[in-house]
From TrEMBL:
GO terms for molecular function: chloromuconate cycloisomerase activity; magnesium ion binding; manganese ion binding; muconate cycloisomerase activity; racemase and epimerase activity. Belongs to the mandelate racemase/muconate lactonizing enzyme family. Its cofactor is Mn(2+). PANTHER family: O-SUCCINYLBENZOATE SYNTHASE (PTHR48073:SF2), O-SUCCINYLBENZOATE SYNTHASE-RELATED (PTHR48073). Residues 149-246 form the Mandelate racemase/muconate lactonizing enzyme C-terminal domain. The gene is catB. Signal peptide: none annotated. The keyword Isomerase applies. Its EC number is 5.5.1.1. This is Muconate cycloisomerase 1. Keywords: Aromatic hydrocarbons catabolism, Isomerase, Manganese, Metal-binding. It is an enzyme of class 5 (isomerase). GO terms for biological process: amino acid catabolic process; peptide metabolic process.
Amino acid sequence: MSPVTKIDQIETMILDIPTIRGHVLSMATMRVQTAVLVRVTFSDGSEGIGEGTTIGGLSYGAESPESIRSAIDTYIAPVLLGRDGDDVNGALQLVDRLVKGNRIARTAVEIALWDGLGKRLGVPVAQLFGGAVHDRLPVAWTLASGNSETDIAEAREMIETRRHNVFKLKIGKRTVREDVAHVARIKQAVGDTASVRVDINTAWSLQEARWGLKGLQEVGCELVEQPVPARSRRAMAELAQGYEIAVMADEALNGPEDALEVANARAADVFAVKVAQSGGLKRAAEVVAIGQAAGLGLYGGTMLETGLGTAAALQLFATVETLHWGTEFFGPLLLTEDILANPIVYRDFCVEIPTGPGIGATLDPDKIDFFRRDGGRTRKTVAGA
Ligand SMILES: O=C(O)C[C@H]1C=CC(=O)O1
Ligand SMILES: [Mn+2]
């Protein structure tokens, strides 16, 4: 019998990477994206890499980049050291028992474990999830410059260069009337050449959302993402059932338990399935399964991860038969620089699934050194130390 490949070391680092322009969301304006990267080293010398990323510090959700890193270093890494690296399910069950919440932190480590296993077996992670049924997926772009004219110019360029023809507009910061007028201007400019959707990031009350959805569907917007707070399931159900425009759950979906409750309450027409928010690739696959069983639409969502987290998500979504609303795996394109030596490829309105072993991502060491916070000091948790 070959010796067990043990988890030897788990290393974390924070990267701060500027965005190509201000990304204006209802709760924060991003000028930098902060990613937490994990590198797991195994006893046979193999490695796995993972990413756990949120948006806008603590303004989007309950985890911050700093809390993600600290949860990994303090609570997740020490219990995994010395374990069999091939036993990913065993590691996940152990972490599930010992660490509540902290889904993004758990995701970062989980991705690194799948990546390590895939690399050792010489297969893409998609194969560990039953095999890819797509080699590319449609990919949306988010228009969020904060200015209608800039957004229109950006949309036109994306359509002309065949990069994107699906646009998600970030609204919810201005009045409902101003937001609907902004969406109408953009829809009018792109006409039938593009699909226009919006994301409110929970900013509306139910009353505002009633006016908002009525106005949005009148101007040709096809889908509205998380108009009201994550916990407002009854409001989401009223909106999903009361209007033709599709209502998509995002912040409301934190793993399979939420997915089941949202589906039971008919509190969405579509699930935005996010790997990080679900608690990892395996949990995201469970959210997908619940959406499928409930007959809901599916969409591959992002936390604006770098190429690393994006590659991991692509491995899973390549295995999903039907993504009725496509994906938004454009994270690397929002950043001034790609941190991968083999950047994700975008062409013909699609994103291509990386084909190499593991998640199919190789880090560019110079970029990592350049964007590292703390002058390049990593924190290492080492077996037997
Ligand atoms: O969906 C979100 O709320 C977060 C994210 C996804 C795309 C984007 O621009 O922001
Ligand atoms: Mn969203």
